[in-house]
Design a protein that fits this description.
By secondary structure, the chain is of the alpha/beta class. It is 49% helix and 14% strand.
Length: 137
């Protein structure tokens, strides 16, 4: 208690960070989209004819994306999702830059009737940091 009283600013910052982490995790869990790592995403792509969907901006997509990824910006997912209709029964791995926006996009796809929607853990940044192949437009 003395530590908290003497370092209340530090304690408040710690509480804010812990609160932010908890809110992020609760948001991810309530979206209902399972996360997969790069190894599992690659397996789904290769063995089950999966699809990678990039929901980042077009500029980021052009700088680099996962192999054969389809670009559908997060804000344009609903009007342009018709390009994805033939993949409703196949695994669809959604990703963004770091994993935050992909959950929202995955939830939208699930609501549209896509059966196997997954989120890439760590997003594009995690994929690239692992040294996995990327493409440029």
């Amino acid at each position: 208690m003395d530590f908290i009283a003497n370092n209340w600013i530090l304690f408040a910052a710690l509480a804010a960070v812990v609160g932010w982490i908890l809110m992020s995790e609760l948001g991810r869990l309530t979206q209902g989209v399972k996360q997969v790592d790069a190894t599992e995403a690659t397996r789904l792509y290769n063995k089950q004819d999966g699809l990678f969907v990039d929901v980042r901006s077009e500029a980021d997509f052009n700088k680099g994306h996962l192999p054969a990824a389809v670009h559908v910006a997060d804000g344009q997912l609903e009007p342009r999702h018709k390009r994805l209709q033939k993949h409703k029964q196949k695994p669809v791995v959604v990703y963004c830059g770091n994993g935050m926006a992909a959950g929202r996009a995955g939830k939208k796809l699930k609501q549209e009737g896509f059966e196997q929607v997954l989120q890439l853990k760590g997003g594009y940044d995690g994929w690239a940091a692992a040294g996995l192949p990327t493409e440029r437009k």
